[in-house]
Structure of Branched-chain-amino-acid aminotransferase:
Amino acid sequence: MAPPPVQTSGETTPHRDGEQYANVNWDELGFDAVPTDYMYVMKCSIEEGDFSHGKLIPYGNIELSPSAGVLNYGQGLFEGLKAYRREDGRIQLFRPEQNALRMKMGAERMCMLSPTVEQFVDAVKQTVIANNRFVPPPGKGALYLRPLLMGSGPLLGLAPAPEYTFLIFASPVGNYHKGRPALKLFVEDKLQRAMPGGTGGVKSITNYSPVYLAQTKAKAKGYSDVLFLDSAHGKYVEELAVCNIFIVKGNVVSTPAIQGTILPGVTRKSIIEIALGFGYQVEERLIPVEDLLEADEVFCTGTAVIVNSVGGVTYQDKRVEYKTGKETLSKKLYETLIGIQTGRVEDKMGWTLEVN
Ligand SMILES: *Cc1c(COP(=O)(O)O)cnc(C)c1O
């Protein structure tokens, strides 16, 4: 391991001469954490008020006080985005400022200090460049970046932590779709993931483990994932554990409106724009379960899956199936979006950002 470069501006980037790629079996990549060379760390105390002195350090375990806010009271946020290596060798990110803005919004809801959009994007770029040899070859996947913001300062009484740590680690991930069938969803009508006024609309770490029970039960029955309903009425479709959902009926594409209980996905937002460009009518609205059951096609979106078609859903004793395969809108949306993300399709939207 090379000595940790201590720097914040990205002028001197760590790299290993002559080693274009790390020793990774690129054809076997899934979505498991693979350790890489470096991670980025930047801190901020309540007294300082602003983040500064961010640096790349060798990837490894971190030290935390047992009374850190994140460990005791779950004061933490996460983000997820990908860097792709293009055919011409350049590496690009997809709308990283959107993740930065979402982290800022989440930090306000969770009473945390957060890095600026510029700091966030610069840190992501530095993390990608430092781990360049882990960015898969074109067509083999992406380098997944996981920014974290946590209340790292110690406390015992219930209050926002006195210090915050922003950390980014990375892991190469494979192409999610390789050999995967369309999803089979179970519509969960008892366990909830988010409530009005809660934190469902921000990427708080506290939103995820409450989902495990419903997911575990559904998977044991052969489903791929759970679809949650709104907790106030139990009748409107919200989202999966980590994906937004869309339904297609004729020329109309609908997705649940963002009203605080649904995570505003960057993929969701991008898919809405691409579908509008294809000439579809797009509606962000309340979607009763009945509309889901009557749809022609259903798909879900998220950074990890990009666009994944849903083959069928089960709601109480009803099972319905949807159109899947080559002729679907979800396939067309997937091809367009991954094309832009990987640089194979021209980016007319200005969504991509080169890092090197
Ligand atoms: C991250 C996430 C999504 C998808 O957001 P993207 O920005 O598209 O990756 C959707 N729902 C939940 C609950 C999420 O955590």
User: Anything to note?
Assistant: The chain has seven helices and 16 strands.
